[in-house]
C-alpha cells in the first residue's frame, strides 16, 4: 500500500476534490511496502520509485507500458505477441518471450499477487492507489525470486463512505474510453468498491496487404474489491479482477537485411524493403490476418491479524487464469519463397495459444522486539502453475533440409507444471550505540521443480521428436522434469546522517530458475537450461530538503551487478529448419546509476527529472560460434531521461487550471544481443533501434464553478515523432532479416470527469 503522510490517501484522488498543494504534498511524503511493512520512501535503504494514482492520472498514464517514463532504470516494450504481452526490464534484466517453460526476470504483482505470465499486463491501469518499482535482485521478501526487480500495482481500496467517479473521453483514431468506480459501505465492517474501464481505438498502422488496421485497442476491464473488518485487529481484503482483449494485434514491419547472410541478399527481401521505403511510416505489408484474443481472471485475498502487541500474522492467497490466442508474423511482410517442389510458401507466419492457471499462498509473521530496536519477518511461499502452451509456425519453420516445405510445425507443451516452495526471514536492527544506523539481513531458501510433456509435429502428422539415433518417437511424446535449489539473500546498512539525509549500501543475490526449451526436438535440445544468478552492490543516498517557500527531494543510486548463466534465446538453422532455443550465456557485468529530483519551489509549481544510465555488456559469450563479448544487451538503452513540469493556477469561482508537460528520451537500442556482423565484426545497422524523444501534455480545468467536474485536454507524442518501440532480431540467426514494432503517432483527446 502507498499513502501520503498527513494528506489524503492515494485511492481517494478520483473521488474527492483536492487542491494542488495537497496533491504535491502527497508526491513528497510517500509510504511504500518495499520491505513488506509500511515505511516512508525516503527511509528505505534500497532504490524504489513510487508513483501515486493521482500522479499517474495527471501524466495521462493509462497503460503499464507508459510507466517507464516516470521510473528511471525501467524499460517496457511490446513483444512480438503484441502490446498486451509486455517485455518488462529493470537495469538490463528482462524476459524476451512469455513461454510457460521459463520465468520473468522482473515480477509484476497486482494486489499483492504475482502475475507470472505477461499476457494482459497492459491493463488494469484504472482506479489505482499506486505503482511501486523495486530495483535490483529480489532475493528474500517477495514471492517469486527475480534477478531484475519487482513492479507492484496496488488498486484503490474500499473506503468507509459512499463515493465514486465517472470519466469519459474521446480522441483521434475514433478512440473512446469510459472509466469509473463506486464505493459503498454495506456496514461498519463491510466495505465494497466496484470499478471498470472500457477502451476502444482504431489501429494507427495500416496493413496494405490484408486491409487491417493494426495497433488497435478493444479492451474490457472490471474489478470488485471487498474489505472486511469483523473485529478489532483483523482485516481481510479480496480483489477480483477480469480482463478481455479482442484486437487485431501489433503492427509488425520488416526493417532491414544483412547481405550475404541467410535470405539477406534475396531479391525478394530487397524488393520488399524498397517497397516499404516508399510507403508511409505506419504501414506494414504483412500477409497474416491477425486476431488477438486474451482473457484473464485473477483473485487476491489478503488477511492481516494483529495477534499480539507488535505482532502481525499476514496471509496472501492468489489465483490467476490466462487464456490467450495470438497469431503473429515474424517477418512482418508479404514475402514468399518457392521450395524445391515449386510450392509458394509464406516466410514466417506463427501463432501461440496458451491456457494456464496459477495458485499461490504466502504466510508472513511480522513483529518488533527489543523496545522497537529489532524488526523481523518470517514467512513461507508456495506457487503452482499448470497449463499448456501450443506454438505453430510455417514458412522457414516447416522446411526440410532439402528445401521441401513439409507444412506448419506445431509444438504442444501439455501439460506443463511449475512448482515452487520457499522459506524466508529478514531482520532489521537499529544499533543502540550508533544513533541513526540500521543493519538488515535476510535470506531465502528456494526450491523449484519444472515438468514438461512435449509433442512436436509437422501438420501432416510427422513427428519431429527423435531419439538419440535420430529416429522419430512413437508415440510422439517426451516427458522431462528438473528440480533446482538455491539460497538467496539481502544485506544492507543505512545511516540517517542528519534529518532528511539517508545513506546506504546494499548487497543482494537473486536467481531465476532454469527450465526447458519449448521447441526442442532432440534429447540434446531438451537438456535443461540452468538457473541464472545475479549478485549486486548498490550505494545510494536519499535526501529531503527545504527551500525558501518550497521543498525538494533528490535520490541517487549507483549499482554494479555480476550476472552469470544468463538465459538467452538463440535462433539457428538446424537441418534446414529454423529453431529457437534458450541457452546460458557465460557472464556479464552491468553497471549504472539512477537519479531522481523532485522540486516544489512554490505551492503552485512542481518539477521533476529522472536520469538512468545502464552499461550492460557481455563479459564472454559464444553465440552460434561467434564471440560476441562486449555486445550491448538487447532492448537496453544506455540512457533514459524523463522530466515533467506542472503549474496550477487558481481561477477563483471558475475553478483551477492545471498545465502539465512531460518529456521522455531514450538513446539508441540494439534489438539483438549480437551487435556485430560475424563476417566483418562491425555493428549491424539492422540491429539498431534509433533514439527518440516524446513530448506529452495535459490541460485540466478542475472543480468547474465549484462543482466536482473536471474537463481535460491531452496529447501524447505531441510532435508526431516516428519511432520504433521494439523489435525482434532475426538477422543474426541465419535468416538474414529483422522486423520491429512501430511506436504510436500523435494521439490526443478530451475527457470529462465527475466525482460524487
TrEMBL record:
It is a multi-pass membrane protein. It comes from Sphingobium baderi LL03. GO terms for biological process: iron ion transport. This is Uncharacterized protein. Its main location: membrane. It holds the Pfam family Plug. It is found in: Cell outer membrane. PANTHER family: FERRICHROME IRON RECEPTOR-RELATED, TONB-DEPENDENT OUTER MEMBRANE RECEPTOR. Residues 286-718 form the TonB-dependent receptor-like beta-barrel domain. InterPro entries: Beta-barrel_TonB (IPR000531), Beta-barrel_TonB_sf (IPR036942), Plug_dom (IPR012910), TonB-dep_rcpt-like (IPR039426). Residues 41-150 form the TonB-dependent receptor plug domain. GO terms for cellular component: cell outer membrane. Belongs to the TonB-dependent receptor family. Keywords: Cell outer membrane, Ion transport, Iron, Iron transport, Membrane, TonB box, Transmembrane, Transmembrane beta strand, Transport.
Amino acid at each position: 500500500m502507498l499513502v501520503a503522510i498527513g494528506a489524503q490517501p492515494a485511492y481517494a484522488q478520483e473521488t474527492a476534490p483536492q487542491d494542488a498543494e495537497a496533491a504535491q504534498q502527497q508526491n513528497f511524503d510517500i509510504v511504500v511496502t518495499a520491505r513488506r511493512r509500511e515505511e516512508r520512501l525516503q527511509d528505505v535503504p534500497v532504490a524504489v520509485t513510487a508513483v501515486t494514482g493521482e500522479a499517474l492520472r495527471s501524466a495521462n498514464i493509462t497503460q503499464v507500458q507508459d510507466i517507464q517514463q516516470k521510473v528511471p532504470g525501467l524499460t517496457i516494450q511490446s513483444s512480438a505477441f503484441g502490446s498486451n504481452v509486455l517485455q518488462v526490464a529493470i537495469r538490463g534484466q528482462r524476459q524476451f518471450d512469455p513461454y510457460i517453460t521459463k520465468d520473468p526476470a522482473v515480477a509484476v504483482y497486482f494486489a499483492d499477487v504475482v502475475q507470472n505470465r505477461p499476457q494482459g499486463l497492459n491493463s488494469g491501469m484504472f482506479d489505482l492507489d499506486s505503482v511501486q518499482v523495486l530495483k535490483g535482485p529480489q532475493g528474500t521478501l517477495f514471492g517469486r525470486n527475480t534477478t531484475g526487480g519487482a513492479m507492484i500495482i496496488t488498486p484503490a481500496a474500499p473506503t468507509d463512505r459512499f463515493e465514486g467517479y465517472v470519466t469519459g473521453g474521446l480522441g483521434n483514431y475514433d478512440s473512446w474510453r469510459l472509466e469509473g468506480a463506486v464505493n459503498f459501505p454495506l456496514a461498519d465492517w463491510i466495505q465494497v468498491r466496484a470499478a471498470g474501464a472500457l477502451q476502444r481505438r482504431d489501429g494507427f498502422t495500416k496493413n496494405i496487404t490484408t486491409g487491417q488496421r493494426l495497433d488497435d485497442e478493444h479492451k474490457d476491464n472490471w474489478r470488485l474489491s471487498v474489505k472486511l473488518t469483523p473485529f478489532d485487529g483483523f482485516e481481510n481484503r479480496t480483489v477480483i479482477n477480469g480482463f478481455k482483449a479482442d484486437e487485431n494485434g501489433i503492427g509488425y514491419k520488416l526493417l532491414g537485411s544483412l547481405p550475404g547472410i541467410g535470405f539477406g541478399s534475396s531479391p525478394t527481401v530487397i524488393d520488399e524493403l524498397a517497397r516499404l521505403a516508399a510507403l508511409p511510416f505506419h504501414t506494414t505489408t504483412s500477409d497474416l490476418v491477425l486476431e488477438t484474443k486474451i482473457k484473464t481472471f485473477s483473485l487476491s485475498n489478503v488477511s492481516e491479524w494483529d495477534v499480539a502487541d507488535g505482532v502481525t500474522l499476514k496471509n496472501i492467497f492468489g489465483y490467476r487464469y490466462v487464456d490467450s490466442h495470438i497469431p503473429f508474423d515474424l517477418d512482418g511482410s508479404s514475402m514468399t519463397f518457392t521450395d524445391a517442389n515449386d510450392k509458394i510458401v509464406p516466410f514466417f507466419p506463427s501463432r501461440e495459444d496458451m491456457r494456464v492457471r496459477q495458485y499461490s499462498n504466502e504466510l508472513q509473521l511480522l513483529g518488533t522486539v527489543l523496545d522497537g530496536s529489532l524488526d523481523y519477518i518470517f514467512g513461507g511461499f508456495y506457487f503452482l502453475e499448470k497449463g499448456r502452451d501450443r506454438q505453430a509456425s510455417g514458412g522457414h519453420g516447416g522446411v526440410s533440409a532439402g528445401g521441401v516445405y513439409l507444412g506448419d510445425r506445431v509444438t504442444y507443451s501439455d501439460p506443463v507444471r511449475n512448482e515452487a516452495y520457499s522459506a524466508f526471514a529478514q531482520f532489521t536492527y537499529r544499533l543502540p550505540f550508533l544513533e541513526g544506523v540500521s543493519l538488515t539481513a535476510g535470506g531465502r531458501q528456494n526450491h523449484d521443480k519444472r515438468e514438461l510433456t512435449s509433442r512436436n509435429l509437422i501438420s501432416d502428422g510427422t513427428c519431429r521428436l527423435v531419439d538419440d539415433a535420430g529416429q522419430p518417437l512413437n508415440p510422439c511424446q517426451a516427458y522431462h522434469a528438473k528440480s533446482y535449489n538455491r539460497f538467496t539473500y539481502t544485506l544492507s546498512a543505512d545511516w540517517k546522517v542528519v534529518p532528511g539525509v539517508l545513506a546506504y549500501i546494499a548487497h543482494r543475490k537473486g536467481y531465476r530458475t532454469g527450465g526447458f526449451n519449448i521447441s526442442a526436438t532432440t534429447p540434446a535440445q531438451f537438456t535443461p537450461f540452468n538457473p541464472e544468478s545475479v549478485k549486486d552492490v548498490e550505494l545510494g543516498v536519499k535526501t529531503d530538503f527545504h527551500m525558501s517557500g518550497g521543498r525538494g527531494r533528490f535520490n541517487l543510486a549507483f549499482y554494479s551487478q555480476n550476472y552469470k548463466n544468463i538465459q538467452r534465446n538463440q535462433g539457428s538453422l538446424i537441418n534446414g529448419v529454423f529453431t529457437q532455443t534458450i541457452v546460458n550465456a557465460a557472464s556479464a557485468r552491468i553497471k549504472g546509476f539512477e537519479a531522481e529530483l523532485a522540486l516544489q519551489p512554490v505551492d503552485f509549481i512542481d518539477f521533476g527529472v529522472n536520469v538512468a544510465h545502464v552499461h550492460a555488456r557481455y563479459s564472454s559469450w559464444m553465440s552460434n560460434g561467434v564471440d560476441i563479448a562486449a555486445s550491448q544487451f538487447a532492448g537496453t538503452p544506455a540512457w533514459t531521461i524523463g522530466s515533467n513540469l506542472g503549474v496550477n493556477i487558481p481561477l477563483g469561482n471558475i475553478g483551477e487550471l492545471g498545465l502539465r508537460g512531460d518529456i521522455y528520451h531514450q538513446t539508441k537500442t540494439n534489438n539483438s544481443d549480437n551487435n556485430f556482423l560475424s563476417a566483418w565484426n562491425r555493428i549491424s545497422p539492422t540491429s539498431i533501434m534509433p533514439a527518440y524523444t516524446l513530448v506529452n501534455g495535459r490541460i485540466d480545468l478542475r472543480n468547474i464553478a465549484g462543482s466536482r467536474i473536471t474537463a481535460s485536454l491531452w496529447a501524447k507524442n505531441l510532435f508526431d515523432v516516428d519511432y520504433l518501440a521494439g523489435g525482434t532480431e532475426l538477422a543474426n540467426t541465419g535468416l538474414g532479416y529483422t522486423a520491429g514494432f512501430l511506436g504510436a503517432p500523435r494521439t490526443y483527446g478530451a475527457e470529462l470527469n465527475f466525482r460524487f
